[in-house]
C-alpha cells in the first residue's frame, strides 16, 4: 500500500520520530488527513446529540477530535513493508517470541477502542535472518492505527512477517477487550477475544505449534 498524500518514507519518518516505547506521541500526520472535514462532521455530531458546539468547553472539541483521529488512523498512510526493512544475519533457527506487546485499535463497526496484548513469534528462515524486536511492535502499531477488526489485524501482522522475513513459520496471538461490548450494546466488560494466525511450519507441525502456544499462553 502506498501513502496517498505523502511519500511513505516521509510518513514513516514522521511516525517513527514520534514513537516512544512503540506508541505514537505528539503531533500526528495532520497534513495527510482532511482535518477540516472531520471537524465539520464532529460539530454536526455534537449538534445531533443535542449539545451546543459553541459552548465554552466544546468550542475546540471538533479540532481536537480531528487531530486525535489523525493520530489514531495514521497507520492508513504508512506502507507496513517499510517497517521491516532492517534485518540481521544471526544464524538463529529457533523460535523468537515477543510477548505482551500493547495493542490499541478502533473497531471498524463502532469506532470504539479495543485494547490488549499481541504475542508475536517466528522461526527464522534457512538464511537465519532476524529482524529487530522493536520492529514487531512497530508492525502492530501500523496495522492497529486503522479502523480494524481483531481478526484482520492478527492476520495482517502474520502475513506481512511471512512476506518480508521469509521465516519458516509465524504465530500471532492477540487478546483484546472491546469497548463496543463493554460501554454499550451487550455491556459485558472483561470479556477477552483471542485471535490467532499461524503460518508455515508452525501451522503444519502440531508439536512446534503447541510449544509456541505454551510460551504464549502459559498454563
Ligand atoms: N468479529 C469481530 N466482531 C467485532 C469486532 N469488533 C466489534 N465486533 C462486533 O461487530 C458486531 C457488529 O454487529 P451489528 O449487529 O452490525 O451492530 P450492533 O447492532 O451495534 O451490534 P451489538 O454490539 O450486538 O449491539 C458486534 O457483534 C460487535 O461485537 C472484531 O474485532 N471482530
Ligand atoms: Zn465495535
TrEMBL record:
**GO CC annotations, alphabetized:** cytoplasm
GTP cyclohydrolase I domain mapped to chain residues: 38-216
Task: Look up the coiled coil feature and give its residue ranges.
Answer: none
For this chain's UniProt record, which GO biological process terms are given?
A: one-carbon metabolic process; tetrahydrobiopterin biosynthetic process; tetrahydrofolate biosynthetic process
Organism domain of life: Bacteria
Q: What is its EC number?
A: 3.5.4.16
Pfam family name, one: GTP_cyclohydroI
Q: Which UniProt keywords apply?
A: GTP-binding, Hydrolase, Metal-binding, Nucleotide-binding, One-carbon metabolism, Zinc
Q: In which pathway does it act?
A: Cofactor biosynthesis; 7,8-dihydroneopterin triphosphate biosynthesis; 7,8-dihydroneopterin triphosphate from GTP: step 1/1
Q: Which GO terms describe its molecular function?
A: GTP binding; GTP cyclohydrolase I activity; zinc ion binding
Q: Where does this protein hold Zn(2+)?
A: 107, 110, 180
Task: Note whether Manganese occurs among the keywords.
Answer: no
InterPro entries in the record: GTP-CH-I_C/QueF, GTP-CH-I_N, GTP_CycHdrlase_I, GTP_CycHdrlase_I_CS, GTP_CycHdrlase_I_dom
Q: Which reaction does it catalyse?
A: GTP + H2O = 7,8-dihydroneopterin 3'-triphosphate + formate + H(+)
Top EC class, one word = hydrolase
Cross-referenced HAMAP family: FolE (MF_00223)
Family classification: Belongs to the GTP cyclohydrolase I family.
Describe, as the record does, how this protein assembles with itself and its partners: Homopolymer.
NCBIfam families for the chain: folE (TIGR00063), PRK09347.1-2 (NF006825), PRK09347.1-3 (NF006826)
Q: What is this protein called?
A: GTP cyclohydrolase 1
Amino acid at each position: 500500500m502506498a501513502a496517498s498524500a505523502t511519500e511513505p518514507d516521509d510518513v514513516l519518518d514522521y511516525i517513527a520520530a514520534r514513537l516512544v516505547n512503540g506508541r505514537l506521541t505528539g503531533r500526528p500526520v495532520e497534513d495527510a488527513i482532511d482535518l477540516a472535514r472531520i471537524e465539520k462532521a464532529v460539530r454536526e455530531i455534537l449538534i445531533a446529540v443535542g449539545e451546543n458546539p459553541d459552548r465554552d468547553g466544546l468550542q475546540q472539541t471538533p479540532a481536537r477530535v480531528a487531530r486525535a483521529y489523525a493520530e489514531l488512523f495514521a497507520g492508513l498512510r504508512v506502507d507496513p513493508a517499510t517497517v521491516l526493512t532492517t534485518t540481521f544475519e544471526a544464524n538463529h533457527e529457533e523460535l523468537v517470541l515477543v510477548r505482551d506487546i500493547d495493542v490499541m485499535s478502533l473497531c471498524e463497526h463502532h469506532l470504539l477502542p479495543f485494547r490488549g496484548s499481541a504475542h508475536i513469534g517466528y522461526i527464522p528462515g534457512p538464511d537465519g535472518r532476524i529482524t529487530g524486536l522493536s520492529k514487531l511492535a512497530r508492525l502492530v502499531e501500523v496495522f492497529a492505527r486503522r479502523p480494524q477488526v481483531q481478526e484482520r489485524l492478527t492476520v495482517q501482522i502474520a502475513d506481512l512477517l511471512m512476506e518480508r522475513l521469509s521465516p519458516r513459520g509465524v504465530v500471532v496471538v492477540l487478546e483484546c477487550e472491546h469497548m463496543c461490548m463493554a460501554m454499550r450494546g451487550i455491556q459485558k466488560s472483561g470479556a477477552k477475544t483471542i485471535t490467532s494466525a499461524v503460518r508455515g511450519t508452525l501451522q503444519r507441525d502440531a508439536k512446534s505449534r503447541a510449544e509456541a502456544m505454551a510460551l504464549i499462553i502459559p498454563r
